Amino acid sequence: MLTQGNKKKIIVISAHPDDEVLGAGGTLLRHAAAGDEICWLIVTNIFEQQGFSSGRVTTRQREIEQVANALSVTKTVKLDFPTMTLSTSVLPELVKQVSAVFLEFKPEIIYTLNRSDAHSDHRIISDAVMACTKSFRYPFVRQVLMYECLSETEFAPALPEKAFIPNYFVDITDHMERKLAIMEIYSSELGKHPFPRSLDNIKALAHYRGASSGLVYAEAFQLIKYIDK
Questions:
Q1: How far apart are the first and last CA of the chain?
Q2: Residue 164: which of 227, 225, 223, 86 has the closest Cα?
C-alpha cells in the first residue's frame, strides 16, 4: 500500500544499534531522499544491571538519537530486551511486541535481519519478524527483505540451508560516503581491518556487491516476499 503522494512507509529492524547502518544504511538514505517515512525498530538495549557503565548506557542512547537524525528516521521504537539474551523462550512476547509496532505503523517495506546470522539475537528476531508478515493479518506489507550484517552474516555456518542469497541490489553510490560517516557515530563498534566492522570492509563489501550488479556501490538483500498490487 502506497502512502499519499506515492511515499512509502518503511521499517528497518535492528537487533543492536549499528545493524541498520551496516546492512541498509545507504538504502535508508535513498528512502529518506525520496521522502519515505522510516520507522526504526530496535529490539535490544544495554543496561547497567548487565555490567555496562552508566556512561556507556548514556552514550548508546545518544548514538541512537544521532543516527536516527542522520537517517531522517520518522519514528524510533525501542523494545528494550536486554542485549545478548534473546532465546526461543522470549519469542512469544517478542512476536507480540513486533506485531503491535507493525499494526500501528503499517509498513509497506520491511528490512529485517538475516535468518541465519551467527548472533542468536539476530536469528530470534528474524523468526519473530517473519511471524508478523502474514498477509491476512498484515495486509499492508508488500515487501520483506533480509539484509546482511558484517561480522554476523559472513560468520554463519556455510551450509546450503543457511546461506545468505543476495538477489536484490540497491544502488548506494551517491550515498556511500554518507553511510560511512553515519557509521562513525558508532565509533566503539568499529575497528581496523581485518576486523569485520571497519570502514574499509564496509566500503569493500559495497564495492563487491556493486561489481555483482553493474553498479559502483550497492547493498545486497535477500528478497523474501514481494506482493505486487
A1: 8
A2: 223
Strands 109-113 and 9-14: parallel
Distance CA 131, CA 39 (A): 19
Q: Count CB neighbours of 93 within 10 A.
A: 12
Residue 106 CB coordination number (10 Å):
17
Q: What domains can be seen in the chain, in order of their start residue?
A: 4-224 (3.40.50.10320)
Pick 55 or 229 by higher pLDDT: 55
Q: How far apart are CA 103 and CA 81, in angstroms?
A: 20
Over residues 37-61, the pLDDT tens digits come to 999 999 999 999 999 999 999 999 9
E strand or H helix at 130? helix 120-130
Residue in the structure block whose three cell numbers are 535468518: 115
- Which cell goes with 204? 569493500
Q: How far apart are CA 199 and CA 211, in angstroms?
A: 18
Q: Name 210's Cβ contacts closer than 8 Å, sequence gap at least 6.
A: 169, 171, 173, 216, 217, 218
- What grid cell was written down for 113? 535481519
